[in-house]
Design brief:
Blueprint (H helix, E strand, L loop, with lengths): L7 E2 L2 E4 L2 H13 L4 E6 L5 H13 L2 E6 L19 H10 L4 E3 L3 H4 L18 H4 L3 H16 L3 E5 L3 H13 L5 E5 L19 H6 L2 H14 L5 H15 L3 E9 L13 E9 L2 E9 L4
Parallel strand pairs: 2-5, 3-4, 3-6, 4-5, 6-7
Antiparallel strand pairs: 1-2, 8-9, 9-10
Helix pairs in contact: 6-7, 9-10
The protein binds adenosine monophosphate.
The site of adenosine monophosphate has 17 residues, from helix 2 and strand 6.
């Protein structure tokens, strides 16, 4: 059998092929270690690193993958300008006690002749699925590949991408992929803005407006939780508040149930308020839990 390739960035071991990734993970499993996988698109921030920390709490080893997946971007999306900083990411991963970086190229993930994709169901059709056609099929396909490539015991995903977390749960369950999916709470800037690689696109004036998204979600959840307003009125008020704050376009603000992410008319059970809104050419998403009154 071939030996593990010895590439390193700083102190971090890096592999770029499925075969090398599997050799590392198999060796750890043979030694009795459990393994967590943290799939990312890089440009790492404290939100990503919280997933690594959670992975290391649950498992002996953590692998982080960095792959900016072209198939989950639409034709007008930000694939080409998406931030990339492998050396900076590697330094952060060393400090987070990551054991291995998996950074495949597009040719490794989608070799010539690639043809098989994952189709996502109803849970991927609304909300972001409606505004970003094909996005969740791209996510489900690449995540399925990463999970099968790594053969890890646990994979960590952020609640920041709440619908994505649901799509992945559904996918793993439907395709009998033997892995535990761990959801990790959203990490925020001190002013409440959910950390995101895309925050780097914001101009200083836009950055000043951006925390209004989380402020609106929190106050809406509180008012709904106190039974002060109907869901319909709260959603209308929320959109008006975002526009007043300076958001240029609102894709959606919706209160949904936490099983199927279907719209709730009344908060009579635990729900989630999800929103997507634009500041110029940058699209921000966020979500918070909402609990029934009393
Ligand atoms: P991305 O690199 O944006 O594709 O994100 C990779 C993973 O990090 C996904 O599971 C995201 O949900 C998660 N993530 C991104 N931002 C945050 C955040 N602020 N807090 C927690 N997890 C996050």
């Amino acid at each position: 059998m071939k030996r593990n390739s010895g590439e390193k960035i700083g102190k971090l071991a890096v592999v770029r092929t499925v075969a090398d990734l599997r050799r590392h993970v198999a060796a750890w499993h043979r030694a009795g270690d459990t393994v967590a996988l943290v799939p990312t698109m890089g440009a790492l921030h404290a939100g990503h690193l919280a997933l690594v920390t959670r992975g290391k709490e649950l498992c002996d080893r953590a692998v982080v993958s960095i792959f900016v997946n072209p198939t989950q971007f639409g034709p007008n999306d930000d694939f080409t300008r998406y931030p990339r900083d492998e050396a900076g990411d590697a330094a952060k991963l060393v400090r987070s006690r990551c054991d291995l970086l998996y950074a495949p190229g597009v040719g490794e993930m989608y070799p010539a002749g690639f043809a098989t994709t994952v189709t996502t169901g109803a849970i991927a059709e609304r909300l972001d699925g409606h505004f970003r056609p094909g996005h969740f099929a791209g996510v489900a396909t690449v995540v399925t590949k990463l999970l099968l490539q790594a053969q890890a015991d646990v994979a960590c995903f952020g609640e920041k991408d709440y619908q994505q977390l649901h799509v992945i749960h559904r996918c793993v369950c439907d395709l009998d992929i033997a892995i535990h999916i761990e959801g990790v709470p959203t990490v925020r800037e001190p002013d409440g803005l959910a950390m995101s690689s895309r925050n780097a696109y914001l101009t200083p004036p836009q950055r000043a407006i951006a925390p209004a998204l989380h402020r609106m979600l929190r106050s809406t959840a509180e008012r709904l939780g106190r039974g002060e307003t109907s869901v319909a009125a709260a959603m209308e008020a929320a959109i008006a508040e975002l526009l007043r704050a300076g958001f240029s376009k609102i894709d959606y603000v919706e209160t949904c149930d936490v099983q199927m992410l279907l719209p709730l008319d009344r908060v009579d059970r635990p729900g989630r308020i999800l929103a997507a809104a634009w500041l110029g050419t940058t699209r921000l998403i966020d979500n918070v839990p909402v609990l029934p009154a009393g």
